[in-house]
């Protein structure tokens, strides 16, 4: 007779998988992907290392799944920020500030998602993540062109430039090796966010406002 998995077994496996994901993200949040060792994850999750590999074919597959889940949350936050009332420029201003402030609030998490050297499978997910942001910005830019508050331009290319500019500008402040006061520990965070957003919108609109 063929083995048939019971509902109780399926539920137990689902709970174990969820726990592994939660503990992996806990490790990443504390020290980046480099600190998320399988033995440590297994210990936190209360499972054997072999159990992890029954749910994920490799360490890369586990990390790619973690990256997908974490970045989708961030993309959703930017989408929410773009859904507020106002002109396209105002909505983009709000979304860019949301992106920067969330990154500075959780610098290690943001570093892991934006710039930490990662395995090829995770890097592939990072490219998907950047494209998702670009797609959201592109829609807003097209709306702004239609509204007349943004000059006519290649919205797809400009959206990619926005993602690159805000991501690259945060690499230094988020880096675990930076020697300056960590973000959020002085009064420079608002100034940093203002500077980044001003640069992005100036490049987008061609104005100083």
TrEMBL record:
Boundaries of every HTH tetR-type domain copy: 14-74
SUPFAM superfamilies listed in its UniProt record: Homeodomain-like, Tetracyclin repressor-like, C-terminal domain
TM ranges: none
Molecular-function GO terms, alphabetical: DNA-binding transcription factor activity; transcription cis-regulatory region binding
Annotation: DNA-binding region: 37-56
Pfam families: TetR_C_24, TetR_N
Alphabetical list of InterPro entries matching this protein: Homeodomain-like_sf, HTH-type_TetR-like_transc_reg, HTH_TetR, KstR2_TetR_C, Tet_transcr_reg_TetR-rel_C_sf
Top-level taxon of origin: Bacteria
Alphabetic keyword roster: DNA-binding
UniProt protein name: TetR family transcriptional regulator
Source species of the chain: Marinobacter nauticus (Marinobacter hydrocarbonoclasticus)
């Amino acid at each position: 007779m063929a083995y048939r998995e019971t509902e109780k077994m399926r539920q137990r496996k689902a709970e174990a998988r969820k726990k592994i994901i939660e503990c992996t993200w806990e490790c990443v949040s504390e020290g980046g992907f480099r600190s998320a060792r399988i033995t440590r994850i297994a210990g936190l999750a209360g499972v054997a290392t072999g159990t992890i590999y029954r749910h994920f074919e490799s360490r890369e597959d586990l990390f790619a799944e973690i990256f997908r889940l974490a970045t989708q949350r961030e993309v959703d936050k930017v989408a929410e920020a773009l859904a507020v009332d106002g002109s396209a420029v105002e909505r983009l201003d709000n979304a860019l500030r949301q992106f920067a402030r969330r990154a500075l609030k959780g610098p290690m998490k943001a570093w892991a998602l934006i710039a930490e050297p990662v395995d090829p499978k995770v890097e592939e997910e990072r490219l998907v993540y950047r494209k998702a942001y670009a797609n959201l910005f592109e829609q807003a830019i097209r709306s702004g062109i239609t509204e007349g508050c943004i000059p006519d331009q290649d919205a797809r290319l400009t959206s990619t430039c926005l993602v690159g500019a805000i991501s690259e500008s945060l690499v230094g402040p988020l880096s675990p090796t930076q020697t300056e006061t960590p973000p959020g520990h002085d009064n420079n965070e608002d100034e940093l966010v203002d500077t980044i957003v001003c640069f992005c919108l100036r490049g987008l609109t061609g104005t100083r406002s």
